[in-house]
Amino acid sequence: MEFKLPIRKENSNKSTYGRVLNIAGSDYMPGAAYLSSVSALKTGCGYCYLCSTERVIDAVAAQTQNVVFVPQNKVQNYIQDADVIESGCGWGTDIQAVKMFSKIIDNASVETPIILDADALNILAQNEFDQIYDFTNKKFEKLVFTPHPKEASRLLGITLEEVLSNIEQGAKKITQKFNCVTVLKTHKTFICSPDGRTYTNNTGNNSMAKAGSGDVLTGIISGLISQGMEIFEACCLGVYLHGLCGDIAKEKLTEYSVMAEDLISSIPCAIKKYLSEIM
Question: What is the pTM of this model?
Answer without folding.
Answer: 0.96
